[in-house]
Amino acid sequence: MTKGRRISYAVSGACALGAGVIAATVTAGPENIRFPEGYDKGVLYAVVDRHDIKQYRELWSTPEAVKAVREGRPIPHGTVLTLVQYQARKDDKGDPVRDAKGRFVKGDLVAYTVMEKRKGWGAGYPHEWRNGEWEYAAFTKDKQANAKANKNIKGCFVCHKPHEGQDFVISLASFSGAAAGASVARRTGPGIVSIGDFLFGPQKLTVKAGTAVNWTNTDDSPHQVTVQGQTEVRSPVLLKGQSTQIAFEHVGTYDYICGLHPNMKGTVEVTK
Ligand code: HEC
Ligand SMILES: [Cu+2]
After folding, report:
1. Domain range for residue 261?
2. What's the DSSP call for residue 228?
3. 193 and 211 Cβ atoms separated by less than 8 Å
4. Ligand 1: does its nearest atom lie under 6 Å from the Cβ of 174?
5. Residue 115: how many CB atoms within 10 A of its CB?
6. Do 63 and 42 contact (CB within 8 A), yes or no?
7. Span 183-210, average pLDDT
8. Distance 245 CA to ligand 1 centre (A)
9. pLDDT tens, 30-42?
10. Do 98 and 130 fall into the same domain?
11. Mean of the per-residue pLDDT values of the chain
12. Which ligand is nearest to the CA of 159?
């Protein structure tokens, strides 16, 4: 008995020491993030209808972070952003049900993804995928570390990396309520693509060489036109109502995706 007790003493002593060492060097990895218990006492700064994957998503922040961004200050250390994924509730045909405002209705909880920013974090990552001082982690609906998703944690960094100019927070515009607002009309015409309900319309556009194609985002969610090929061309992130133009000089078939939602696909066919 005494022996057992002595061992457990020694172990807890070593643990305390170990924790001190880890805090000083900070090993990079999703294990740094604990499940953000009480996230829903913070600020619900956006609700995103993901038409592409039929999900209803809630985006939660801390009041301090929202205040800082609204005042034009950097996102403070200690900020935790929690994205909660729910199924969109569906009708008999499997289509998402809409509420009176045309928005999705919250269904079953699916999972959580979390970003957390702390001083000195991220130093252990290679430059190509480091996202400042952010760590990423995925949790199951039971609030447990999602081992499968965390194994490919690099995927989080890669997708958020192009948003370095807004401290890697893709939904940053929603912090100031800038993304909400009046609806934007869908335009049609030669060389014009409207983005709505997470679809490019028309999905396939044919233009003559030398034409500048214009994309306008009519969704509450941001999108980003990303033309694939040997040299990838990425438009700026388009908020609701914003447009971008890309000129096509050479005959060919150009496939493009949304840089934020890679399962959104479109094609520009350029003829003589
Ligand atoms: C395919 C690109 C992509 C990948 C991969 C990705 N995200 Fe995101 N993330 C987004 C987009 C787009 C948003 C904006 C909200 C939305 O559309 O759901 C977002 C938003 C977030 C937010 C809310 C704050 C913000 O940046 O807007 C968190 C937290 C988040 N992601 C965590 C993660 C974690 C953790 C992972 C990895 C497990 C991950 N993301 C992987 C595209 C991605
Ligand atoms: Cu998109």
Report:
1. 192-271
2. -
3. no
4. no
5. 24
6. yes
7. 89
8. 25
9. 999 999 999 999 9
10. yes
11. 87
12. 1
